[in-house]
């Protein structure tokens, strides 16, 4: 709203409104700690026009065209205008071209190129942008290249499902083509959202993992690791998704806590007892080993039963069957109760005594399953004896490799039993009918003791939402055991924020036995290996790989599927490796895990020879994902971490900490936050700055909640900030810092004190940005503009600003402080609210071109602003003011006069600095007291009428870091003023209600230039009738 458009001009209504918006007088006394906020009270000594408006044009009201509020669409529209006008899109290249020494490199973790931009993207990208903008303003050249992770199963599956039945007939090349255009469409949408959020980058030069040059770099890393023996092909159990027909990495799983398995207790009959066991059994009853498993379908692949050598085991007699069972001694009671029977313990022995024994496979009577010691056996569940199927468990596999047991897999890519499993099981899906048949077979063999349904957490394919199995297959692996130790050592030099993230990362790394990097899909980077058509041999060496890398670099990885074998393996390459014929080989069918794609981004994106980023900043899921794959590939190839600092943020959750999901209806779309929803009264258009303020304000190191009320609160914060800025802008009108500034030491004490606070604020803010603690920046700023400025300083200085002469040093002193405050404030929040910061800059009356806060550096404060001694003066005066205001609750302070009595001493000397005369209505002391007049005495006045209030207090002066300490008492005597209200400044300082107070008389009469026109201000300040006059 332009107040200048009021029909009566800037008169009484405008002034009253100004008071309302800029400082609501609060007539209460706050308890107050030293150096903290103080409330303004009784602030009604502001100028208002007299009833005839005679002096209204003689006061200097704030003027600025900076709008107080942006209503409805104005907010997002103004942001778009600012982006255009202030060159948001050119800022990245501008700052790259600067000649500066330091560079700050934030390496963008690539979001996945599927789906629409969501609130999680907003959190991540805005945090990065705040960090970048801060470092840029501090003078570093920013290296930030946004990227996208473009390959992978989720995109491939989406494309295939959209094609439906037609997908069956598509070639790999056709699927890849469709997957690429799908990814491109997603990238386009996400990019325009990121730009709209104000994220600074060169959006025409991003990186994409499907770019040929990127793929070539990635293959080079692959080959370097292969050459070092860190990449190998092996037959091992891996997580396998029958629904996607591919191996999956740990990061591609999600655990379903509601999964139901059919758990079973099975007897493994004793075949050959260990020597110790021989002595404990008499052969009168059959002996079996009790095993419990949740995966009945893995029983056919059993190769052993494992025990814990250090634990006690028992032979028990079952009261129901009379059979003897072996199980862990600790599990006797619980297992008996599960089997609804009782066990009588015959004897106990150590687990190690089982060594050398064997039991029979419950479905294949002649097959021996050795009893083996293993460290992974636990007593938390089951019987203390673990069924071991090396093809279907990582730990089982490791036991099998120690004892040279076979790792035969009876399950194919579709999760179906193969013919090797026998006719009863062949072609049956292991998790469905297969499980059922196995249980029936165990029942028929009389080895099943019990079956029950068990609800437990089970891994699912994160994309198809179907359960996975563990299945041995020939895959490519990265041997991370050899890399882990170095990686952990290097991590010690990396700064993690929060610090606990380091342990979390090490733990996830420790949990990973190996990294399976091959996938049996087509949308990805091929593993550049050729397989012999008839022999189980493969071909890969530096010549073949170099040739493929060159092709990929030029034409992209499509060549793997489009070029004939003789071009992928040309004669000259083959002749170097012994003259084999290309036609004897076929290109391998596996592609690389997308974590390998994105994990090698450092080699393509990071600048310089060092190729280390100053910062990686991602969500906590990346501790087991991108942070880790980046670290492992970097350590494997060059023995260094790709990052110096890692900042980890939480996930976005709903208001009550619940996950966001469409079904819960709590999904917040960033586009709706910015542009509003269908019902704009329920979902108003907030603009991007509100979204950014929310991001900055959140404690990002834990989970981050978002809801309509959170966003609304963010909007309110920004509105208050806007009002503060408007006051600052309005009151520096007509001020030129270069010519009008007052040297710090000549400024009013309160103005000097504000600079002192400002310097402290600036240091704390800079420090918080340095620590990436943007929430603290917001809290510091908010406290400053609400408490120190709006509630305190602004209410005190209005009289000086509005009623003194334009060029009066008292007024200039205040404006000097305001100009500094404005500058520090804008730079402080600029990284967080770039649109508002630039908008403010367009309204700074003395701003020089370029009018851009981002092109003019970081906060500049002066060490001479630091004046801790002033705290004593202001704090003690405020203590006395609190006594005064507390004594007249609900009253207008200006209608009272105050006598302050302080015994001679340090406190008196300090207060005397603020008022040299005994009694004054214009002193700095009286300004702070906001009274009609203040009298400063060192002893009690002689007379005191009955109509007075007396308050006493003490104040502890603490100077020079505690070297000077002195407690002084003071007395505040309050009485109604005998003066009348000045019709110009409204202070009770006039002799009669129709004469000006001495100060106003001097201001008005001393400047009368064109009395006839009833204008009483200097010509150059005569603003009457000017359309520029707003407040
Ligand atoms: Zn006056």
From TrEMBL:
Keywords for the protein's UniProt record, in alphabetical order: Acetylation, Aminoacyl-tRNA synthetase, ATP-binding, Ligase, Mitochondrion, Nucleotide-binding, Protein biosynthesis, Transit peptide
Domain of life (superkingdom): Eukaryota
Catalysed conversion reaction: tRNA(Ile) + L-isoleucine + ATP = L-isoleucyl-tRNA(Ile) + AMP + diphosphate
UniProt domain Aminoacyl-tRNA synthetase class Ia: residue ranges: 94-706
Location of the Zinc finger FPG/IleRS-type domain: 980-1003
GO MF annotation list: aminoacyl-tRNA deacylase activity; ATP binding; isoleucine-tRNA ligase activity; tRNA binding
Transmembrane segments: none
Comp. bias regions, Polar residues: 38-53
InterPro entries, alphabetized: aa-tRNA-synth_I_CS, aa-tRNA-synth_Ia, Anticodon_Ile_BEm, Ile-tRNA-ligase, Ile-tRNA-ligase_type1, Ile-tRNA_ligase, M/V/L/I-tRNA-synth_anticd-bd, Rossmann-like_a/b/a_fold
Hydrolase among keywords: no
GO cellular component, one term: mitochondrion
Region spans: Disordered: 32-56
Pfam family, one: tRNA-synt_1
A single BP term in Gene Ontology: mitochondrial translation
EC number: 6.1.1.5
Location in or out of the cell: Mitochondrion matrix
Domain Methionyl/Valyl/Leucyl/Isoleucyl-tRNA synthetase anticodon-binding: 751-873
Role, per record: Aminoacyl-tRNA synthetase that catalyzes the specific attachment of isoleucine to its cognate tRNA (tRNA(Ile)).
Record family assignment: Belongs to the class-I aminoacyl-tRNA synthetase family.
Designated name of the protein: Isoleucine--tRNA ligase, mitochondrial
Name of the gene: IARS2
